[in-house]
Amino acid sequence: MNEQNKNSKPHEEAPKTVQGDSTVPSSSWKKALSKRWVFPAAYLAAAAIILTLVWVYQDASQKTLKPQGEANVSESVQSSEKPATEGKDGEAVEVTANAQSMIWPVADDVAVSIVKPYFDETNPETHQEAMVQYNDTFTPNLGIDLATADDTMFEVRAALTGKVTRVENHPLNGNVVEITSGDTKTVYQSLNEVKVKEGAEVKQGDSIATAGRSEFEKDLGNHVHFEVYEGGKLVNPVSVLPQK
After folding, report:
1. Total domains in the fold of the chain
2. Which of 163, 157, 162 is nearest to 188 (CA)?
3. Residue 152's domain is classified under what CATH number?
4. 95 located within any domain
5. Cα–Cα distance between 118 and 116 in angstroms, integer?
6. Same domain, 4 and 54
7. Structural domain harbouring 24
8. Which pLDDT score, from 0 to 100, does residue 18 have?
9. Residue 30 near residue 23, CB atoms below 8 Å
10. Which DSSP letter does residue 241 get?
11. Helix (H/G/I), strand (E/B), else coil: 115
């Protein structure tokens, strides 16, 4: 009987794997993961590492980055400290010319007067005397005309330091000299005995010619016609000349 019971019990065997081998006991790391404190500890460690990396990155950024615009401010300060005459020779002459105050295109000891004024559109009272008649045509005077009371010839001088940019003999205006001084141009007409050539550099007060005559204003006798342009625009010479 006992033997039958023994024989009737199912034969117990260790479970097999697919290959037929017995299963291996759980590894040590699986046992560790089964413990409750493992996951919270791992989470805290990861969080601590992340916070440390963020702090290090922010600290490095604050040390290396400058406020936007700081470089521009320093560059502008340095550029403003440079002397105005720095650069090419032509640029230095231009700065000097613009810094000058214009002088009358005649010597101080020459007694001249304005025999024909500039045609000022804003001053109707001077319109009639500021018109130039040539044959049957009347033209507004674009500058001022200077002459002596006894119709004598006198020396014409450069009103500003600059470069002679035009010398020509005009059939109506007589000999013409143009001097460019930065953004300012001074034009001298009705000249005699021109002493400068185109391309020459002249200084303020240098003698450039003597007063002469022109076909366009022959009734004025010996005189100099003087025009001023600033930024390419015609201006009244009296407005930029000192009181005489």
Report:
1. 2
2. 157
3. 2.70.70.10
4. no
5. 7
6. yes
7. 1-87
8. 42
9. no
10. S
11. strand
